[in-house]
Design a protein that fits this description.
By secondary structure, the chain is mostly helical. It contains nine helices and no strands.
Length: 205
Amino acid sequence: MTVPVIALRPTSAARPRVVDVSGAVAVADAELVARARTRDPWAEEMIYRRHAPQVASTARRLLRDPVEAADVVQETFLIAFQKLEALTEPAALRGWLARIAVSRVHRRWRWRRVRFWSAATEDEGLADVVDGGVTPDRRAELALIDDALRAMPVKLRVPWVLRHVVGFSLDEVATACDCSLASVKRYLGRAEAAVAVHAGEVARG
């Protein structure tokens, strides 16, 4: 059985457009960051409104727990606004926020292990978090991928989810995971191979 991984990506790469009270398209991220560094409340609000949906999507699809994901969103923006001066490339705000969110997700995974968390907990599956409706056949395929993801090391699972479920570019995955582009490509290759192997074993089962 072959699982079409690429089909999990969102069908649209369009990003939300934020408008000000006059209806004009909002300013670029770099300018918003510059203004937020001066504690401009409007700029901070625009940054949150523009990027909170993506941060929430990333956190939910990694944690598979909407309550914990909401906490990660709040923590991410609290940290971001405290550390805006550390952002060396303001235009890369989206990836930088994702890196903070992924870091907070890792903290929760570590805490889950402390509490003897296992994959048997009642978390959401891929069929619950991917965009659009899911047919019975697709739900079965996603269940296979879920099993493969649970068995993967975190360093393989996170890049795979960011790339194939959240829809990040390779560069954005590298930024979020705080690693090189070459490493991301290597991790993705290993993760995709693991998914294919697991699907093949189940089909032969």
